[in-house]
Write a structure and sequence with these properties.
Elements (H helix, E strand, L loop, with lengths): L11 E5 L4 H11 L3 E6 L14 E2 L2 E2 H6 L4 E5 L4 H12 L3 E4 L5 H5 L3 H7 L4 E6 L14 H7 L21 H24 L4 E5 H6 L3 H10 L16 E5 L4 E5 L3 H11 L2 H5 L6 H6 L1 H12 L4 H11 L3 E3 L3 H6 L1 H5 L3 E6 L3 E6 L23 H7 L4 H10 L2 E2 L9
Parallel strand pairs: 1-2, 1-6, 2-5, 6-7, 7-8
Antiparallel strand pairs: 3-4, 5-14, 9-10, 10-11, 12-13
Helix pairs in contact: 1-7
Length: 409
């Protein structure tokens, strides 16, 4: 699958981002066909190049995952020649993304207002901890902090009174990157009408808040902040994980139709006759008793046996898979969510695929993540720099020309 055929083919994006939130935005755009040029700092590059273990060959697994489909250049923006390189790239760019603290880009001379004067069609996307306005605008942000402050950690975990638990994945980083990509696409649509770009501003804090829609609805309606409920749902039951004789399964039998189907599957007359569980509101009022009764029933059979019965009855259910099991799952593979791509030094590597499918302009993964500075010469050539000029800037340390070392077989 060739990502250059994607719906964003022809879109030029300059990524001035590191670690996860900004690079998530970039990989989404790149997987949909955009020409994403990732600019890394000198001498150390993106911080994910140093997140070890694990490594694949001499490359970190973290960097490989977040930067596939991008071309990489290494530039020192503290040097005049480095700044000249970025200005040249920005002349014809559609989008620039950055995830630094407020004021950092301005101090370098590349703040939004300066770039807007340089290229009025440019869409400038800033991803930060708390956004570019408000009393926390100057604070740095990390996923852990954003999960805590957004309310997510207060609703994650087994029960009230237990230590706070964050979502296992860096969900605010990833969501902020997706929101940024969404905002960029909306700004592109606006540019079609007006001919002008704009700033797109989102944050990890807001990315955490949007995950509290149900719990915020409850709190705004009642004045009471919901607490953690394990795998259960705050508004419907049964909708959670249950233990079987050999593992765990999840069941979504919350609406009345599926509840009645579940009673048929369980063949438990006492449950059917229990008036506490006759309605959705009753099941929520007596959730702990419902959980205990259902766990008693589900421990009578294996996960596979229950999943077979539930599928035949039309009740949404599934196994609780670990990440390796998810990778091997037939639906994961059928949806191309684990795919192979070619890396310039490592050969064939596996990565996570594009989660959005297009019937006419399919995106996908066309190349592996760049080695440090791999495309510096190539990109500078494309933007009018001569060979002697490139070599002189490399000798001065304004740019780094990466060396691709093919791993021994």
């Amino acid at each position: 699958m060739n990502a250059t055929r994607g719906p964003l083919a022809g879109l030029k994006v300059i990524e001035l981002c590191h670690v996860m939130a900004g690079p998530t935005c970039g990989l989404m755009l790149a997987d949909m066909g955009a020409n994403v040029i990732k600019l890394e700092k000198i001498p150390s590059g993106d911080d994910t190049r140093h997140m070890v273990p694990p490594k694949i060959g001499d490359q970190t697994a973290a960097f490989l995952m977040m930067n596939r489909n991008k071309r990489g250049i290494a530039v020192d923006l503290k040097q005049d020649d480095g700044k000249r390189v970025l200005w040249r790239l920005l002349e014809t760019a559609d989008v620039v993304t950055e995830n630094y603290r407020r004021g950092f880009m301005e101090r370098l001379g590349f703040g939004y207002e300066a770039l807007r004067r340089h290229n009025k069609r440019l869409i400038y996307c800033a991803i930060s901890g708390f956004g570019r306005t408000g009393p926390y605008a100057d604070r740095g942000g990390f996923d852990l902090v954003a999960q805590g402050m957004s309310g997510l950690m207060s609703i994650t975990g087994e029960a009230p009174g237990r230590p706070p638990v964050k979502v296992g994945a860096p969900v605010t980083d990833i969501t902020a990157g997706i929101l940024a990509a969404m905002g960029i696409l909306a700004a592109l649509e606006a540019r079609h009408r007006t001919g002008e770009g704009q700033m797109v501003d989102t944050s990890l804090f807001e990315a955490g808040i949007v995950h509290t829609y149900w719990q915020s609805a409850i709190a705004l309606a009642t004045g009471v902040a919901p607490g953690p409920m394990g795998s259960a749902h705050p508004l419907n039951a049964p909708y959670q994980a249950f233990a079987t004789s050999d593992g765990w399964i999840t069941i979504g039998a919350a609406n009345q139709t599926n509840w009645l189907r579940l009673l048929d599957v369980l063949n438990a007359p006492a449950l059917r006759a229990d008036e506490r569980f006759a309605t959705g509101a009753g099941r929520m009022r007596h959730l702990k008793d419902l959980e205990a009764a259902l766990n008693h029933e589900f421990r009578k059979r294996t996960s596979a046996a229950w999943l077979g019965l539930l599928e035949r009855a039309g009740i949404p259910a599934g196994p609780v898979l670990d990440v390796k099991e998810m990778h091997a799952n037939e639906q994961t593979r059928a949806r191309a969510m684990v795919v192979e791509t070619e890396h310039s030094s490592l050969g064939t590597v596996e990565t996570i695929g594009l989660p959005v499918k297009f019937s006419a302009t399919p995106g996908g993964i066309a190349r592996g993540a760049p080695v440090y500075g791999e495309h510096t010469r190539e990109v500078l050539r494309e933007h009018g720099f001569g060979e002697a000029e490139i070599d002189a800037m490399a000798r001065a340390g304004a740019i780094h020309l990466g060396e691709v070392k093919v791993a021994a077989e």
